[in-house]
Design brief:
The chain has one domain: NAD(P)-binding Rossmann-like Domain (Rossmann fold, 3-Layer(aba) Sandwich), CATH 3.40.50. Strand 4 (139-142), helix 5 (158-179) and strand 5 (188-192) form a beta-alpha-beta unit. It is globular and about 45 Å long. By secondary structure, the chain is an alpha/beta fold. 47% of the residues are buried. The protein has helices spanning 9-12, 68-79, 93-105, 120-134, 158-179, 205-225, 243-249, 252-256, 274-281, and strands at residues 59-63, 83-88, 110-114, 139-142, 188-192, 231-237, 292-295. The chain has nine helices and seven strands. The structure holds nicotinamide-adenine-dinucleotide and magnesium ion. Magnesium ion (MG) binds next to loops.
């Protein structure tokens, strides 16, 4: 198929004009936010992602799989032939059910396990149930995240600091530890860090620290698990258009201009980052471990 400028439609997707550009309308949602209530709705690859068997027969657990980057990864994994368990918070059931439907439409097994990963016992149960339902586990995507901005360290409460570390760091540790009872040789772990690990914003003091911790965790664990044939990598997104930003991740004036400073002039859409997670999980990247792959619209920082 060709478009107006004569280029193949697929090539035009790299054109900045193919996706929404700022300014966006202000849109505050209560945490954890719903993709279905965003305007414009994020593109998670629902109508565009085409699989080619790159993850045939694989069994994946994806945290935060209801919306945003996790949803795009769930859709891509299912269309590449994997069975998928998604975890999310109970308030996100509506978003989660859309994902479950899409995984099933791809002809794969879809399992929804809602629950709060700030609890160690829930994390252990999540992994156990996921492995039971899928008959094993060979891909773990630690993607759930909490980002709530605070202008000053003085406004950042111990409760907030704790919730961010529990969600972004402790849960990754607990879930990964439990998953190691199931992950065979050849399995892969993909964590979601952020450009915030390297270029922390003034208003994301706690969040940026957790993202730096995820980088160190990824590199350390890759060394530890290499001899067992298990690879560990991370993806570092720049500004991506997801519910995370609208439900307290950024002040509304920044939501309005979200992605404006990226060289591509707009935020990324979740569909644009899922291919990194596919490649890192697939058997095409068997010599890649301990790496952080960035997608941030062109700064060249990482
Ligand atoms: P999102 O809001 O769509 O996804 C985050 C998910 O985390 C939520 O859907 C929710 O299910 C889950 N979550 C949060 N707290 C939880 C808890 N206590 N228990 C269980 N699940 C919980 O937003 P997203 O942007 O797709 O976020 C995915 C990952 O990407 C996060 O780790 C985030 O830090 C990271 N990230 C996002 C951006 C961006 O600009 N959107 C940039 C860099 C990194
Ligand atoms: Mg969500």
């Amino acid at each position: 198929m060709t478009s107006k400028n004569g280029l193949p439609a697929s090539l035009n997707q790299t054109n900045s004009d193919a996706y929404p550009v700022p300014p966006f309308e202000r849109q505050k949602q209560p945490f954890p936010g719903l993709a279905s209530k965003m305007n414009p709705r994020p593109d998670h690859g629902e109508t565009s992602y085409k699989g080619s068997g790159r993850l045939a027969g694989r069994k994946a657990l994806i945290t935060g799989g209801d919306s945003g980057i996790g949803r795009a990864v769930a859709i891509a994994y299912a269309r590449e032939g994997a069975d998928v368990v998604i975890n999310y918070l109970p308030e996100e059931e509506e978003d989660a059910q859309e994902v479950i439907k899409l995984i099933k439409e791809a002809g794969r097994k879809a399992v929804a396990i809602p629950g709060d990963i700030r609890e160690e016992s829930f994390c252990q149960n999540l992994v156990k149930q996921a492995a039971e339902q899928l008959g094993g586990l060979d891909i773990l995507v630690n993607n759930a995240g909490r980002q709530q901005y605070h202008e000053s360290i003085k406004d950042l409460s111990t409760e907030d600091f704790d919730a961010t570390f529990k969600t972004n760091v402790y849960a990754m540790f607990w879930i990964t530890k439990a998953a190691l009872d199931h992950l065979p040789r050849g399995a892969t772990i993909v964590n979601t860090t952020s450009v915030q690990a390297y270029q922390p914003s003034d208003i994301l003091l706690d969040y940026s620290q957790t993202k730096a911790a995820i980088v160190a965790f990824t590199k350390s664990l890759a060394k530890q698990l290499g001899p067992q044939g298990i690879r560990v990598n991370a993806v570092a997104p720049g500004p991506y258009w997801t519910a995370l930003q609208c439900c307290g991740g950024q002040p509304q004036e920044k939501v309005e201009q979200f992605g404006a400073t990226a060289p591509l002039g707009r935020p990324g859409q979740p569909a644009e980052i899922a291919p990194l997670y596919v490649t890192l999980a697939s058997q095409e990247s068997t010599y890649t471990s301990g790496q952080v792959w960035c997608s941030d619209g062109g700064t060249g920082t990482l």
